[in-house]
Amino acid sequence: MTKQTKYAERLPESFFQRETTKVARDLIGKVIAHYLDGDWVGGSIVETEAYLHSDDPASHSARGQTPSNASMFDRPGILYVYPIHAKHCLNAVTEAKGRGAAVLIRAIEPLWGIETMQRKRRLQDLRRLTRGPAMLCQALAIDRDDDGRCLVSDPNLGLFELKTAPTTVHSLTMASIDPRATVSTGPPTIVATPRIGISKAQRLKLRFVDSRSRFLSRPMPK
Asked: Which segments in the chain show pLDDT lower than 70?
């Protein structure tokens, strides 16, 4: 595959300051990137889940604000990282400050820093590197210490939209896509399904996926 130079324009706070399900859907096809060891590591988002501020007993905010979930109530675009079974999950905070809503990023298609991700995961199989929220955090070296970082302003971490050329002076030039990556072409085919691994509000279709992707945490039924 020929290397493709891409430019990543950072998503502004206004992107996150919207209704959570819209943000979760619109994040499909955007990219997440973390600057590690002198290089960008990340890829294209293929799976998300929305966790709402009300009428959603599966959301961490349903029990109110606590020291452990305080970042979920922060301003839009803040990173909320929580531990689960000695691993971690990463979320982008949405809507207005104090609401308690966020989007869980469940899976990405690896595009940059694949060798770094393989080393972090101690795994070579590209399809298994980032196909679940805990695996994703491990591959991107995100843990509880990153809770509260700002995805809008942090120079070393963010959510972006890919462009073929810089459109503003604030565009961040990304490294060339790794030649081992299998870059999906065309716009994502977005499908809503019930969320995974929860015991409450199981019927709500708040999981959004690119149904064409080979990198989902749980494949779409054929």
From this structure: 1-6, 166-176, 183, 185, 222
Please give the backbone phi and psi of residue 2, each rounded to the nearest 5 degrees, phi first. -75, 135
Distance between CA atoms of residues 112 and 139, nearest Å: 11
Contact 106, 47 (CB under 8 A): yes
For the entire predicted model, the pTM comes to 0.92
Closest to 206 in 3D by CA, of 71, 92, 72, 102: 102
Distance CA 90, CA 75 (A): 16
Q: Do 123 and 50 meet the contact criterion of CB atoms below 8 Å apart? A: no
Tens-place pLDDT, residues 76-121: 999 999 999 889 999 999 999 999 999 999 999 999 999 999 999 9
The closest of 79, 87, 74, 130 to 104, measured between CA atoms, is 79
| Measured CA distances, 134 to 84, 85, 124, 171 (Å) | 8, 9, 17, 29
Does the CA dihedral 144-21-47-31 come out positive or negative? Answer: negative
Alpha-carbon span 104 to 92, nearest angstrom: 7
CA atoms within 13 A on the CB side of 146: 23
Q: Decide: helix, strand or coil at residue 3.
A: coil
Q: How far is CA 147 from CA 76, 130, 190, 213, in A?
A: 14, 19, 28, 28
User: Which of 34, 22, 13 shows the shortest CA–CA distance to 81?
Assistant: 34
